[in-house]
Specification:
mainly alpha; 17 helices; 65% helix
Length: 351
């Protein structure tokens, strides 16, 4: 089996090779996972890899696929097969294995013909939605925002996953704040990037102060049960991560520095929101409870909006916003419209 350093080098070289073009329809992170898993599963070096090993691998994969009753099993095999074929062709081109191009081609043609691969009878609709592999996302459908796109969401996930992987393998990771582990940072970063895009249509390369502060004060408090110590660690943890990302040239240094300042400015609001949550009951929860007592479906936004309109008419809506968020300090972070209040409602009742 290749060493970890060799695996990293082979993956990097493969991405730059012509053979990689055959994989471009698939998410980069999925291609990497397939290639790395293949290399880690080898019980021999590349130089000792023979055609019989390749045959056994594909036959085993196909056998497992036929026994899997999951509807995505066949499309998943198709993806895995095409990625591995491209990677093997790259290895042959660079003389890393003792198998010729003609030997591989002859086997693949026979294998595909014998098993009737890649016909419509097997694969049906070729537009398999790769986002089906991810949990349901709470997407803001405000018509004033740009359309949410799965491709963009996947791209964000791919490159931020890459940032995290590189960080965990770097010397900078050894200097992380006390009490921070990979799971904690991964959860926080994923929540930050997903909420940023799903609700505000902002990517890690276009965040604003209002977005970052709002996510700290809502998502990090409402969606998780972080302890006070964990909440205190979030911004120092993110700031060190951003410093590393900028040092690699993946994020503009000035932009990263701005993000660090924005995050720091949101700490007080986040802690205040957490304190208010702990004190309970939350004012919005009280309103939601009242709506339910009146028979209003809180998932029916038209009905909820009509209820808020009545609250506006008698002044209780403004009081609700004040109870939830305090006085507006004009920094752009205090929600002041129905869409923002709906954001808070969804955050609390997304499951």
């Amino acid at each position: 089996m290749p060493t970890n350093n060799e695996i990293t080098k082979y993956w990097s070289d493969f991405q730059q090779a012509d053979e990689y073009k055959a994989c471009q329809d698939y998410p980069t992170q999925q291609v990497k996972a397939t290639v790395v898993t293949f290399m880690q599963s080898l019980h021999t070096s590349f130089k000792k890899l023979r055609l019989s090993d390749i045959k056994a691998m594909f036959e085993d994969l196909w056998g497992m696929t036929l026994m899997d009753d999951n509807s995505n099993a066949l499309p998943f095999f198709k993806m895995t097969y095409q990625i591995l074929v491209a990677f093997l062709q790259y290895l042959i081109t660079n003389q890393k294995i003792e198998v010729s191009e003609s030997e591989l081609t002859t086997f693949l043609e026979s294998f595909e013909e014998e098993n009737g691969l890649f016909s419509d009878d097997y694969y049906g609709d070729d537009d398999w939605d790769w986002t089906d592999d991810f949990p349901d996302r709470d997407i803001n459908q405000d018509p004033h925002l740009a359309n949410w796109q799965a491709r963009t969401a996947q791209d964000i996930q791919d490159y931020t996953d890459g940032w995290l992987t590189a960080y965990y393998q770097s010397k900078a990771w050894q200097q992380r704040p006390d009490g921070v582990d990979q799971e904690f940072l991964t959860v926080v970063v994923n929540a930050l990037v997903e909420r940023g895009y799903d609700h505000y249509r902002k990517t890690p390369k276009s965040w604003t102060k209002s977005v970052l502060v709002a996510i700290l004060a809502t998502t990090m408090v409402d969606d998780f049960d972080f302890s006070e110590a964990e909440l205190q660690a979030i911004v120092p943890m993110l700031n060190q991560f951003l410093a590393f990302v900028a040092s690699q040239g993946w994020l503009n240094a000035k932009r990263a520095a701005n993000y660090q300042r924005y995050l720091q400015s949101g700490v007080a609001k986040m802690l205040a929101a957490a304190e208010k949550k702990a004190a309970g009951p939350d004012p919005l929860d009280l309103v939601i409870d009242q709506m339910q007592r009146e028979g209003i479906d809180i998932q029916d936004w038209d009905a909820v909006e009509a209820y808020f309109d009545r609250m506006k008419a008698d002044g209780s809506y403004d009081q609700l916003l004040h109870d939830m968020y305090g006085d507006d300090d004009d920094d752009g972070t205090t929600p002041d419209n129905v869409v923002s209040l709906d954001d808070a409602r969804k955050a609390k009742h997304k499951h």
